[in-house]
Amino acid sequence: MKGYRKYFGKKILWFLITLVAAVILNFILPRLMPADPVSAITGKMASGMTDASAVQEIYKRYEAEFGTNKPLIQQFFIFVKNLFHGNLGTSFSQYPRKVSNIISSAIGWTICLQLPAILVGWLLGNVLGALAAYIRKGFDKVLLPVALFMSNVPAFGMAVTLLVLFAVKWKIAPIAGGYAFDMIPNMSWRFLKSVISHYQLPFWSIVLVSIGGQAIGMRSMSIYELNADYVKYARFLGIKDRKIVGYVFRNAMLPQVTGLALSIGTMIGGALVAEIIFSYPGLGSTMYSAVTAADYPLISATTLIITIMVLVVTFLLDIIYGFIDPRVKAAQFDA
Amino acid sequence: MKKIIALLLALIMLVALGATAYADNDVSELPREETLYFAGQQWGTVLSWNIMGTNQNNSMAIAGGPSGYRTLMFETLFMYNFMNGDIIGLLGDSYEWNDDLTEVSVVLKDAAKWCDGTPVTAEDVVKTWDVSVEIGNTAGTTYGAYIDSIEATGEKTFIIHSKLDAEGRPVNPLKVTDFLTGSPIAQAAWIDKLVERNGGDAVSILNDPGEDVVWSGPYTKYYSDDQKVVLIRDDNYWGQDASMWGKLPVPKYIAHTIYADNPAGELALKAGEVDVCQQFIGNVQDLWLKDGLPISTYYEEAPYGVCLTMPTAWYNMNLPVLAENAALRKAIAIAVDYDTIIANAMTNQSPSFADVPRSLMNPTDGEQALYNHDAVADLQWAGNDIEGAIAMLDEAGLVDTDGDGWREYNGEKISLNAVCPNGWTDWQASMEVVAAAGDKIGVEITTLYPEWDIYQTVFTNPNQTEYAIFMWSPEAASPSNPWTRVNQFLGKDYVGVENNWSGNWGQYVNEEADALIKQIPLTTDEEALKDLYTQLTEIYLTEVPSFSLMYRPSLFHAVNESVWTNFPAGDDGREIPPADCTDGYGIAALYELELVG
C-alpha cells in the first residue's frame, strides 16, 4: 500500500509540474507571434473609414479592453487569475464572444466525430493486424501493402479523395456541414438521418487512415508474440488455438493501448483536417481559425484543453497499465 | 460486446444531437422554393444583432459593403447604385443640399415604419446619430469628423449639419452623402432601452447582443448557429407600400451556410445548394461552358462582373532606394506583364489596361468620365515593356557596375521584396509576375508570403521597412468615390498614422497632390472637377507611388439558376447592380426573382 501511495504521489507531483509549465507555455507561445490581433479587429471595423484619428481611437479602445497594452507579466497574472475562476477570456477574432462559449458549442461535435472514429479505427486495425499475423498467407500479403499504403495517405488526401468521389462525383454523400443545408436542428428522424449521413465522410476519412497504422503495429507485435516461447509451450500442451490467440492478443495489445490513449488525448488537433475539408463544426477548425487570426485567448484555451487531455490520459494510462500488465506494476513499485 | 457498442453508438448520437442548438421555430426544413441560399458572406457564427454595436460579424444583417449597405434587416436613408451613381430613396424620400454645402435637408418617407408598426421619424435619425457619436460605434467614428449634428425639424424632416473647418467651410460634404447611403437607422425607443439596460456604459452598449432589436427592413432573424444563419421575411414590411417597392421581396427565407473555405462554398454552388455566391471562382465560365451547369454571372463574357476596385502594389517610401528613384518605381511598373496577371491570377475577370487605361478611377463609366484621358495618354503604359524599363533605369544612372547582373544604387545592389498574405492565391500569382519583371530588368525582386495576421500588422505600421512592394486594395464605390480612393493613393492625411487601415500605405508625400485633393469635396462645377482629377492622375502616373495590378469586383456575383431565376444581368436594361441581391440598390433584385419551375 505504501508503494502505491509513494508511486501515485510522485506521479501527481510530476503531473502538476508539467501542468504549470504547460500553462506558462500556453500563455507565452501565442503571444510571441509577430502579429497584432488588435490591429486586425481595428481593420475589420475601420474599412471605409477615412478619418485616421477615428481609427486610432478604435485601436486604443480595443487595446485597453483586451489589456494588450499592459506588460506581459501583468497579463499573465490576469490570465491565471481568470483561469482559477473558470474564465478563459474573450475571443479576439469572435469578439465579444466568450472563449468558453465558443468551446462549449464546438467540443460536442469534435468528441462525437473523433472518439468513435479513433475507437473504431483502433479496433478494426488491431483485429486486422492480429488476423494477418495469425492467418498469414494470402491475407497477410494483401493486408500488409494495403495497410502500409493507407497509413501513409495524408489525412487531407484521404478526406479530399472521399469528398470528390462520394460527394462530388457519385453524389451519394453530402458535401459539407454537420447537417443538411436546408434543415433547422430539431428532434425528428429526418434531422437525425441528416446528422448521420453528414457524419459518414468525415468519420471514415479518419478511420481509414488510422486503421493502417494500427494494423501494421499490431501485426508485427503479434508475429513477435506468436514466436514466443510461451506460445510454443502452450501448443505443446495442446491448448486450443483460440485460447492461445487470446493470450497473444492481450500481450501484443499493450503498446497499442498507449497509442490509443495518446490519440484520444490529441484528438482536437487530429480533428482539424476532417473538420476543415468537410466544413464540419468542431474544435479543430476553431483552433485553426484562432491561430490564423492570432486570437491569443482562444489559442491558449484550445491548447490548454489538449495539454490537459494528454496529461490526464497519460496519468490514467500509468495507473491502468499497472492493472493490465502486472510486469509494469512490479517495475513501478520497484522504482 | 455488441451491446456495449450499440449503447455507445446510441450515446454518441444523443450527444451529437445535444451539440446542436434547438430551434423553437415552426419549420424544421426550409422549403427549397421559398429560400434563397448564399455563400461567401458569412464566415463565422453570428454574434450580435445589435445595430448600434460594433465589430459586427453578422454579414447578412449588419454589413456596410464596399458597394452599398446591406439592407435586408436594417435600412439606410438612401440606396446607392454603383452602375450609374444614382442615390435612391429608402427610409428617406428626398434630400437637398444648401448652396454652400454646409447642411443637407432630408425628408423621410411617409410610409416608412418599424416592425412594431410605429413610424420611422426624424427623432429616430437624431437619436441614432447622437448615441453613435457618444458610444463611438461604426457610424459615429466613420462620420464623426464630417457631421457636426443632426437636427429634427418636423416628424419626418431633419437637417444634417456638416462639420466646418477654421474658415467656416464644410470639412467634406462627400462623406456626408456617404452617410445617407452607408449608415443604417435604429429606432429611438429601442436605443433608449439599450442604453438603459447597459447603464449608459459605452463598451457594454457596443457589446450588447441586441436580441430584441427593432428593425425596419424586409427580413429579420429566424435561426442561427455555428453552421448557418437564416433570415425570414417580415410580411408586414412597410416597403410593400406603393411609395417604395409596391410588393414584398420574393424569397421567404434568406439562408447562409457557414462554409469552412472558398472551395466548400464553390462546391455547394455547383451542387445547387447555393443560389448566390460572393466568392472568387477561377475560370468561372467553365461552370457553364464545360460543366454545363445553370450558373451565370452578370456579364456572359469576360470580365463577367463589374470591377470596382484595383488591387495595387504599393512602394514603401520608407526605403530610400524607392523614395529617391521615381525612375525605378516607374521602370518596375512598366516592366510588369499585366496581361499575364489578368489571364492567370484573375482568369480574365478584369478588363485589361489596354481596355481601361490606368488612372485613379475604377473602370465604371461614371468614374472613367471624370478625367481627361487624352491629357495623360503619353504617361500611360500597358506593361511588359522591358526595353523601355531598361532604358529608363540606364538613363537614371541605376546601372550594374560590378557585373553581377543586378543594378546598384549608391554602390549597393537594389534588392527588393514583393509581399502579400499567404494563401491569397491570385495576389501571390501577381507578385510572382512582378518578381519576374524585376529579373528581366536587372532588379532583384524576391517574393515573400507571410501569414495574414503578420502581414496586416506590418503593412499597417507607418514605419515599417520589412516590405518593399506590397499589395492592398483601395476603396471600391460609394458617393464619395473616387475622392476617397484618390486620397488613399496620394493624400497626406494618412502618412505617419499608427495602425493605418485608412490609406496611403506606402507613405508617399506630395504637397501639390494633397492640395488638389483637398479642393475636390467642395468643388461642384463638373469641368473644374474633371480638371482636378486629371491633374491628380498626371501626378500619379508620373510619380508612380504605387501601381495597380488588375481591376477586380468588390463583390463577386455568380448565381445558380436551378431554382431561382431573373437575377440582374448586365444586358437586361434594369440597371440593378451585381451586389449579391443585398447591397445598396442591389437589393432590388430580390423583388424581381422568379422560380424556375
Q: What structural class do helix, strand and pairing data of chain B support?
A: alpha+beta
Oligomer: heterodimer
CATH topology of the largest domain in chain B: Dipeptide-binding Protein, domain 3
Largest beta-sheet characterization of chain A: none
Count the E strands of chain B.
24
Give the averaged pLDDT of chain B, no decimals. Answer: 93
- Tell me the strand percentage band of chain B: 15-25%
CATH H-level superfamily of the largest domain in chain B: Dipeptide-binding Protein, Domain 3
Number of strands of chain A: 0
> End-to-end span of chain B in angstroms?
52 Å
Percent of sequence in beta strands of chain A: under 5%
Would you write up a description of this structure?
The complex is a heterodimer of chains A (335) and B (597). With 335 residues, chain A is an all-alpha fold. Chain A contains 15 helices and no strands. In chain A, 41% of the residues are buried. The model of chain A has no long low-confidence stretch (mean pLDDT 85). Helices cover 79% and strands 0% of the residues of chain A. Chain A starts with a helix and ends with a helix. Chain A has helices at 2-31, 37-46, 52-66, 72-84, 99-135, 137-152, 155-169, 189-226, 229-237, 241-265, 267-270, 272-277, 283-292, 296-324, 326-334. The longest helix of chain A has 38 residues, at 189-226. Chain B contains 18 helices and 24 strands. Residues 17-24 of chain B have low confidence and may be disordered. In chain B, strands 10-11-12-1-13-22-14 form a seven-stranded mixed sheet, with helices on one face. In chain B, strands 19-18-20-15-21 form a five-stranded mixed sheet, covered by helices on one side. Chain B has a four-stranded antiparallel sheet with strand order 6-7-9-8, with helices on one face. Chain B has three domains: 64-201, Dipeptide-binding Protein, Domain 1 (Dipeptide-binding Protein, domain 1, Alpha-Beta Complex), CATH 3.90.76.10; 219-305 and 556-595, 3-Layer(aba) Sandwich (D-Maltodextrin-Binding Protein, domain 2); 307-553, Roll (Dipeptide-binding Protein, domain 3), CATH 3.10.105.10. In chain B, helix 10 packs across helix 14 (425-441) and helix 11 packs antiparallel against helix 14 (425-441). Helices cover 29% and strands 16% of the residues of chain B. In chain B, a hairpin with a 5-residue loop joins strand 6 (92-97) and strand 7 (103-108). Chain B has 597 residues and is α+β, with helices and mostly antiparallel strands. Classes of the chains: A mainly alpha (335), B alpha+beta (597). At the A-B interface, helix 2, helix 3, helix 5, helix 7 and helix 8 of A face helix 1, helix 3, helix 7 and helix 15 of B.
